[in-house]
Amino acid sequence: MAKPVSIEVWNPNGKYRVVSTKPMPGTRWINLLVEQDCRVEICTQKKTILSVEDIIALIGDKCDGVIGQLTEDWGETLFSALSKAGGKAFSNMAVGYNNVDVNAANKYGVAVGNTPGVLTETTAELAASLSLAAARRIVEADEFMRAGLYDGWLPNLYVGNLLKGQTVGVIGAGRIGSAYARMMVEGFKMNLIYFDLYQSTRLEKFVTGMSQFISYGEFLKANGEQPVTWKRASSMDEVLQQADVISLHPILDKTTYHLVNKERLALMKKEAILINCSRGPVIDEVALVEHLKHNPMFRVGLDVFEDEPYMKPGLGDMKNAIVVPHIASASKWTREGMATLAALNVLGKIKGYPVWSDPNRVEPFLNENARPPAAAPSIVNAKALGLPVSKL
Ligand SMILES: NC(=O)C1=CN([C@@H]2O[C@H](COP(=O)(O)OP(=O)(O)OC[C@H]3O[C@@H](n4cnc5c(N)ncnc54)[C@H](O)[C@@H]3O)[C@@H](O)[C@H]2O)C=CC1
Ligand SMILES: O=C(O)C(=O)CO
After folding, report:
1. Residue 122 CA: which ligand 1 atom is closest?
2. Whose CA is nearest to atom 2 of ligand 2?
3. Ligand 1 pocket mutation pick from 176, 204, 238, 322 by most atoms within 8 angstroms of CB
4. Distance from the CA of 249 to the center of ligand 2, in angstroms?
5. Distance from the CA of 65 to the CA of which of 114, 152, 278, 297 falls in 20 to 30 A?
6. This prediction's pTM
7. From which residue to which does the signal peptide run (predicted)?
């Protein structure tokens, strides 16, 4: 017997049944589905993380597609249930899809969507905010002020680090890592060192210059300033040893689990700053707590945690840690855009549209004044399922 779930229904007579496991920001995503003959059911259950059983109950006997969240465990059980209910489409409302077993989705012929591009700058901005907050000890100083402890300016009060001229290290220089790197280089005139499995040509061109434009380094030189330098490191350890601020932006998979562990923390400068806006398990959080205890000048800014929503014991007590609850993509424009892209992924598969040829070119789907293209914006297993690709 399925568990009862509370739902909100839009367009009850729609032909296709699309379920969203959470209310999502904005209404454009609902309107786009309703206009295309979908009955939209939104789970309004007062429970932050839905279990597999909760989602099975939501899927029910007939379901064409589901929009889900990164907190949910989309594996064999759910894809089997969705397929049994006639469903052919699932989309995470997230770019990361480490919560999804794509092989299981392939087995049941279910398309898996994600939402790249729309959250790149927003997430990079949070990583930059955490970098500044850690460098200038903003959270500690705010707490001090609110506690009524400020009794006058002092030369040694909350002295932090100047970013200008220091080195920023980026691990995982994809969309978000590159956007963050540019913010730190351009905004704070930091030198860059990065490590990725692949060369980040676009990022390198920005620092070194393209044929028709001068580089940022040359621009600084022309203005009588010290030009910034850049380097692609041959190993991650090189970044850890040389950088003053290090930000982690890889995907989470077997190769990046506990990428930053006890040994690697020991390689870092004693006064380094470590930022994580990727996924919690990229850092061994127990080792991190120990490192923070023994190195009071080492600081971290964390948006994600190994056992989310929990923190490992001791982390919350550390003055040299800034912790925020997985809000890196939380700007209104981005969250509404994520909802739209996720809905269009599901709709695209239901309607038999082709898959958009470049998942990073999302603007046509986000333009509120025009109809979105007849394509699914980003389907990660399109190739495995042999889905056609849009000519646009
Ligand atoms: N905290 C938050 O709210 C958010 C977190 N994220 C996380 O950020 C991740 C990255 O997102 P995007 O930049 O859009 O993805 P992306 O795919 O453009 O970039 C990931 C980069 O990591 C690199 N990489 C993979 N394995 C690596 C390894 N072992 N060592 C070094 N580099 C490696 C890839 O080559 C790629 O360049 C997502 O997968 C997600 O988990 C994304 C958005 C918001
Ligand atoms: O998109 C993601 O991967 C997130 O973590 C939330 O935006």
Report:
1. 44
2. 94
3. 176
4. 11
5. 278
6. 0.96
7. none
Matching fold, domains 7-118+330-385 and 119-323: yes
User: Residue 5's pLDDT band (boundaries 50, 70, 90)?
Assistant: confident
Q: Is 335 a catalytic residue?
A: no
The residues spanned by each domain of the chain are 7-118+330-385, 119-323
pLDDT in tens, 329-343: 999 999 999 999 999
Residue 137 designated active-site: no
**ipTM of model over 0.95:** yes
- The dihedrals phi and psi of 248, each to the nearest 5 degrees, come to -100, 125
Question: Which one of 249, 304, 323 would you pick to mutate in the ligand 1 pocket, going by the greatest count of ligand atoms within 8 A of its CB?
Answer: 249
Residues 21, 74: contact at Cβ < 8 Å?
no
C-alpha 257 to ligand 1 mean position (Å):
12
Instruction: Give the Cα separation of 387 and 168 in Å (integer).
Output: 40
Nearest C-alpha neighbor of 377 from the set 176, 114, 67, 122: 114
326 is catalytic: yes
Catalytic residue chosen out of the listed positions 279, 291, 299, 335: 279
Note the pLDDT tens digit of each residue in 54-69. 999 999 999 999 999 9
What DSSP letter does each residue of 89-127 carry, written as one string?
EEEESSS--TTB-HHHHHHTT-EEE---STTHHHHHHHH
What is the distance between the alpha carbons of residues 63 and 297, in angstroms, rounded to a whole number? 53
For domain 7-118+330-385, the question of CATH label 3.30.420.40 is answered with no
